[in-house]
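Study this fold:
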Amino acid sequence: MHSLNRILQKISYGIYRAFFVFATVTFAALLIMLLANVFSRNFLTGSITEVEEFSKFVFTWMMFMGISIGVYHKKHLGVEFVVEKYPKKVRRAFVLMSDILTMVLFLVLTVYGFKYSASTMRMFSPILHIPYGMVYLCIPLCGIFSLFYCVVRIVDDSCQATEKGGEET
């Protein structure tokens, strides 16, 4: 079980690093594009419409990948201040229940995200002619990777609980 945990942790960290690099690069590109658009709007003939549409799409991808990064860091919605008042065994039960409910949420997000992405694949953006399904593909991808991070957390928590022998502090 511990070797599986180590493998899952390495895979999880690798995916996280890829998302972090993606978020950093896309944020920098988005910033440069928007600054160029502001310059163009104020000092040249007008706004660059392609930049406006593309920046909306990039921001959507960044937001959903950021959700996955937040789940990796365990920064998703939780009620830590209430849970901390209980004994360790009860806290573990609350954390497990929270992880399971989070997994249900991301499972729904994944299933309906794929359905929505598939249903909008034949709809194209007016300026760049990008299929909206490609833009919305970030929704189920966020769900899949967030589900994976929840599974990794459950495995890690159970390995830590067995290491400590379930001792109460």
